[in-house]
């Protein structure tokens, strides 16, 4: 397998209802991951990009979260309908989707 151009990590962390940190799963992260899977399949993107579902990426209150490497750029509040734009703009054209980029103090 050749080295991927980018690696996309999609949080699919779930926690019990009422957990103080919340979870991406309570914000429909599964549909976001499924949308990535469908777009990867439709566009035959597997040769150039790597897609991984993950546990917690940190800012649970702002999920669903998507992290893109090698940039280390985090997106928050991602919806399944945002996935085609993320692929076209960020993955294929190296232009971050500014409206979804995590606020700089997300880790504070």
Q: Can you tell me about this structure?
A:
With 108 residues, the protein is α+β, with helices and mostly antiparallel strands. The chain has one domain: Glutaredoxin (3-Layer(aba) Sandwich), CATH 3.40.30. The chain has helices at residues 29-43, 83-93; strands spanning 6-11, 49-54, 66-69, 73-75. It has a four-stranded mixed β-sheet, covered by helices on one side. The protein is globular, with a radius of gyration of 13 Å.
Fourth-level CATH superfamily:
Glutaredoxin
Number of domains: 1
CATH architecture: 3-Layer(aba) Sandwich
What do we call the CATH topology?
Glutaredoxin
Main β sheet profile: 4 strands, mixed
Secondary structure tally: strands: 4
Averaged pLDDT, please?
92
Radius of gyration: 13 Å
CATH structural class: Alpha Beta
Helix-strand category: alpha+beta
Tell me the strand order in the biggest sheet.
2-1-3-4
Molecular shape: globular
Q: What is the strand content? A: 15-25%
Helix content: 10-25%
Assembly annotation: single chain
Query: Helix and strand succession?
Result: EHEEEH
Poorly predicted regions are: none
């Amino acid at each position: 397998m050749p080295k991927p151009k980018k690696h996309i990590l999609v949080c699919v962390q779930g926690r019990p209802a009422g957990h103080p940190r919340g979870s991406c799963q309570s914000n429909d992260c599964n549909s976001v991951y499924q949308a990535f899977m469908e777009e990867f399949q439709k566009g035959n993107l597997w040769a150039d990009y790597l897609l991984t579902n993950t546990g917690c990426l940190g800012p649970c209150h702002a999920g669903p979260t998507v992290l893109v490497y090698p940039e280390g750029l985090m997106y928050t509040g991602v919806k399944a309908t945002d996935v085609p734009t993320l692929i076209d703009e960020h993955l294929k054209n190296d232009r971050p989707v500014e409206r979804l980029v995590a606020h700089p103090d997300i880790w504070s």
